[in-house]
Amino acid sequence: MAAAGPVLTPLELTRRRRAWAGWVRLGRLERGGLIVLALTTAVALLAPLLAPYAPTTAVHPESFAPPGTHGLLGSDELSRDLFSRVLYGIRASWLSALAVIASGVLIGGLIGTVAGIAGGWVDTALMRVTDLFLALPAAVLAIAVIAALGPSLPHTLVALAIVWWPWYARIVRAEVRAQAVRSHVDAARLAGVGRARLALRHLLPGAFPAVLVTASLDVGSLVLILAGLSFIGLGSPPPAPELGAMAARGMPYLFGHPWIPLAPAIAVFLLAFAANLAGDGLRDLLEDH
Amino acid sequence: MRIRRRVGAGVAARPRAERTTTAVLSLRDLAISFPGGVQALRGVSLEVAPGEIVGLVGESGAGKTVLGLAALGLLPPSAELDGHAFLGDTDMATATVEQRRVARKRFAGAVFQDPMTSLNPTMTVGRQVAEVTGSMAAAIEALERARVPDAQRRARQYPHELSGGLRQRVMIAMAVAGAPALIVADEPTTALDVTVQAGILRLLSGLRDETGSSMLFVTHDFAVAASLADRVAVLYGGRLAEMGPTKELLQRPDHPYTAGLLAARLSPESFRGRPLPFLPGEPPDPRAHVDACPFAPRCPLVIPGCEERLPQVTAAPSHAGLVACLRAGEPPPSLLHVHDRFPDRAPAGGRPPALRLADLTKAFGSRRFRHVAVNALTLAVPAGGAVALVGESGCGKTTTLRMAVGLERPDRGTVEVGEGGRPQLVFQDAGASLTPWLTVGELLEERLRCEGVTASDRAGRVREVLALVGLPISVLGLRARQLSGGQRQRVAIARAIAVPPALLACDEPISSLDVSLAAAVLNLLCRLRAELGMALLFVTHDLAVARFVGDRVAVMHAGHILEEGPPETVLERPQHPQTKALVAAIPRLRSA
Fold first, then answer.
1. Equal fold, B49-73+107-249 vs B370-423+501-585
2. Which of B433, B473, B482, B491 to mutate: most A Cβ within 10 Å?
3. In terms of Cα–Cα distance, which of B540, B551, B543 is closest to B578?
4. Beta-carbon separation of A187 and B474 below 8 A
5. Could you report the per-residue pLDDT of B53-68, keeping only the tens digit for each?
6. What pLDDT, on the 0 to 100 scale, is given for residue A146?
7. Nearest by CB to A192, which of B422, B436, B437?
8. Is B422 on the interface with A (CB under 8 A)?
9. In this complex, which of B424, B474, B481 lies closest to A190 when CB atoms are compared?
10. How far apart are CA B115 and CA A167, in angstroms?
11. In chain B, whose CA is at the least distance from the CA of A18?
């Protein structure tokens, strides 16, 4: 083993042990959440490879086939493979949620950092603009954007991104300001560190844990909001496989063929639940540091 | 097999031990551990007789606070106890939550280090004391007994309206209100200024004489214990190292650890110009399981037998007490060794002063609530010289320091810094001054890069600097939280001197360190100053430290300097009443 594997320094060993100790201390639920989070991301990325059939074409000989007869989850009202559609639906929801969060972290992080470091009138101006965007109601904005640009998933995402970044701007600003009064920043300043370097190396990393935890908790909320918007018809037009829209269009069959609306609905529930648990787990892990 | 149980887990699972003494507090083989394998206490037996004050002394992590909490039955439910802790007739190690509460109410009072967190911020102090005494009249009487001046008026105030010393007096009033048999006081004066501390210590010893209460007094400072306690117990690594009558134990300590702590302690009589003796190494890991003497790795008298088994607690050879050491009573040679003088420093030889502060003024706050922190202060530090700035909290010494290094801009006056590297500051809390997510290597490297040291020279210089402050190369990859307190302070110093500054400013760099670590850091600073020819501006609240470090001592009060001169003059012939009060309040091992 010693000959083949990489030689670990004592430091790396302690690091691994620390990471492992943190993992072991997590509750079973949180640990499960983190695992499901990793699995879901893998499923979302690999959905085209994992799905046995195309999601938008009729592939089964009969419609309304119960689970297990044709394909894993049966077929829907148009003889499409339900399992493949749910997989693609997870892919769309998950990647959309991540995209909204990524844009929020990027825009909000930038504005929050500038406001937090600059202070004074720059801070005041940026934060009032942020408040302005916080006052916009997400759903109403989404409806307005779609009414103007036409229904499509990217339009919904743009609408969500517009209302999502202010939260991150606030968090990053608060964290940066909290770091700025700590003595390690004074010490770095005395060591002769310039402004840009001070911000990037001594202030911003302090905001990282809070942003990461918020982001992971937000994934769950975004999955739910996206499903809701899609349910009321503010997502991609049919036949795109979206979990919210699938559940909405399957509602008439709830009593006769319950798997058609329930499969996408349960997928939404599991995604949101796992994301929340993973967020809690991540917070517990990071709190140690 | 030892039977372990959790606090408050209901009926005792082991045979009930009977109290056999008249002691107020009687601990028998008490062991306490916490989840995660932390063994805070590893079998301590100790008794506090009626009317007796026992001082419990040890470095941080020795288990002294946990012992105090166990006596009060206030340990968190996750603690596992073994052995017995009789408070009055109740075994706090086995009693239920309710039994412990009753015993506490009947027998005990408590005073903790930080009265601000022990008092309820939403209630007037009078009402809080009345919760114990039953009536407001009795509460005011209790406050008067604790020498709270103008008790009638103070009783109607909230904790945040009182000074630290007064808050502690309120806590004491609550603790003694029920005429308890035992008062547990955990570092009650550590957060206070020396003059306030002296008053609180007088009050506590006076109350013992009035009420006859016993006291378990937890402290890290031998001199504080000496001024109050009848007997002193020294804890090390969760075990009893030595215990005996205060006076005899301090004069003839039998345990090398006690001797080492006493030798490392700075007093106004310590010699100057030579390194302080100190114990090498750091306290043991509370999780480690040792069957040997826990002090063996640091002990100057260690013999092979020390590492084979635990030393038994036996009668001490030099005093009427107990000691746990195979070589008890032998004088530890390396501690008594007179060290070489610090190397002679480069003569100032007509160089301009390293720092000149002239008419410095700084105020904080709004126009309505203006607080003048520094008021027309003038001070000079000669090149290569050392000035110690002494004062009580809130006198403006830290603000002065921050202006001297350029972290704060004065409202008025000038700061002139001599030629050489830019001035550096060693912060009070070294851990907080290291960016938590950067490694030691990254921090040192960054400092060198900012001073224009070329990339090829940096690696070599980093190693040199680590060697200078006595740290191993292996710390380079570690972050602040992975370092011990002493290592953090050394890293902070290493960063400051990576490029030797003309002036090294130090803001109470040892006030949060244990005695032996503090001595090591002081030695390091004095040696570096001489070797690198830096000037030192050293802020401290401790006159003994100021005397050791400074060529000159400046006493500060309310934003300006009261008197300044060579340490002998300032300490032995203080001119100003404020300085006289400071000198008089220094706790001493032996009363003059």
1. yes
2. B433
3. B543
4. no
5. 999 998 888 889 999 9
6. 81
7. B422
8. yes
9. B424
10. 38
11. B482
Superfamily of domain B370-423+501-585 in CATH is: P-loop containing nucleotide triphosphate hydrolases (3.40.50.300)
Q: What is the pLDDT of residues B563-591, one digit of tens each?
A: 999 998 988 899 999 899 888 888 887 65
Instruction: Say yes or no for a CB contact (<8 Å) between A183 and B482.
Output: no
CA-closest candidate to residue B142, choices B163, B169, B110, B102: B169
| A252-287 residue pLDDT tens | 887 878 787 888 888 888 888 888 888 887 777 776
Binding-face residues of B in 482-541 toward A, CB within 8 A? 482, 492, 495
> How many angstroms separate the CA atoms of B382 and B354, rounded?
5
- Sites in chain A below the pLDDT cut of 70: 1-27, 29, 71, 287-289
Q: What is this structure's pTM?
A: 0.80
B477 inside 8 A of chain A by CB: yes
Say yes or no: B588 contacts chain A, CB-CB below 8 A. Answer: no
Angstrom distance (rounded) from CA B10 to CA B370 = 57
Angle between helices B515-532 and B485-497 (to 10 degrees): 10
Q: Per the structure block, which two tokens stand in for B444? A: 């040192």
Q: Is A188's CB within 8 Å of B422's CB?
A: no
Residue B120, chain A, CB below 8 Å: the answer is no
Name the residue with tokens 């830096």.
B534
Chain B's closest residue to A184, CA to CA, is B433
Q: Report chain A residues whose CB lies below 8 A from the CB of B438.
A: 201-202
Size of interface A-B (CB pairs under 8 A): 61
Structural domains for chain A: 27-50+70-287 (1.10.3720.10)
Tell which residue, B537, B513, B515, B514, has the closest CA to residue B525: B537
- pLDDT tens digits for range A44-64: 888 788 777 777 777 777 777
How buried is B290 (Cβ within 10 angstroms: 0-12 exposed, 13-18 middle, 19+ buried)? middle
Superfamily of domain B49-73+107-249 in the CATH hierarchy:
P-loop containing nucleotide triphosphate hydrolases (3.40.50.300)
ipTM: 0.79
Stretch B548-557: mean pLDDT, rounded? Answer: 92
